[in-house]
Write a structure and sequence with these properties.
By secondary structure, this protein is of the alpha+beta class. Helix 1 crosses helix 8 and helix 5 (112-118) runs parallel beside helix 6. Mean pLDDT is 90; it is low at 285-291. It is built from nine helices and 14 strands.
Amino acid sequence: MDVSAQVVLTPTESKRLLSKAVLALDEVQRALSDGILAIHPSSTTIFMLEELGLELPEEGIWVCGHISPKGLCISRKMIDAVLETPEYGAARYPFDLILRKGKLLPFAESSLGPILEEMTSDDVYVKSVNAMDPDGKLGVLLAARGSGGSVGLVIKTQKQKKFKMIIPVGLEKKIPIPLHTAQKAAIKTVKAQGIPCGLWQLRGTVITEIEAFKQLFDIEAFPVSAGGIEGAEGSVVWVLQGKEENVEKAYKLCEEIHGAQLPYRLEVYECSQCRNTLCDLAGAKGKVMKV
């Protein structure tokens, strides 16, 4: 007999759930065992590293571009790495977390271009996104609106190499308009709270909380409301439905991940000291916008 249970997941708790589901995929397990698993660093995918019992390399970066209270920003460590690496470019992008046969490569060996050329249809690239439209189309915020930066390189190479693209995304990233409408609006930006960004579409195997609960517990998950206060902003209320034993297991996991926090502290420049010339707040005092 089917039963139902109700749970609340904050965006961070969902990120941990999604990481477990991605790692449980057969194609990801095969890549971990015999091939290459490339993980684009983000607040969603960093939990995959933790789930595997691996630590971020000292030179590694766990989040790149992000949305924070001050606006659209880039982590301090990434800004420093880009400015201090004269040969930096999309092909030399050194920030992905690369596992070859389950072993995390040293930072010096993780340049994106050579790794992508090595990848085959048996390998997997994991990247989260910033937007999901009503039709399930996915968008990535990019400061490099023309070239697409590292994301453009991944998309181009994936078409040739046919490696698998896995995209974990929490439903808090849903937008209520078509992606193409959002893209047109974003490209017209002339100033921003932070870095003016465009949107690029990304295609692949999508893993939301709905697919995650199905993958891990073979149950249905229904988002019935969203929002929150006191740290629960962006949360989603879920009804879990299925066989009693499976629902109980899912409920127990939700209790285990309750209160999940990001494993690393976000380090960003004070706007007045920031060296990122792409940002409208760089060099400003406080949060004063440039006009």
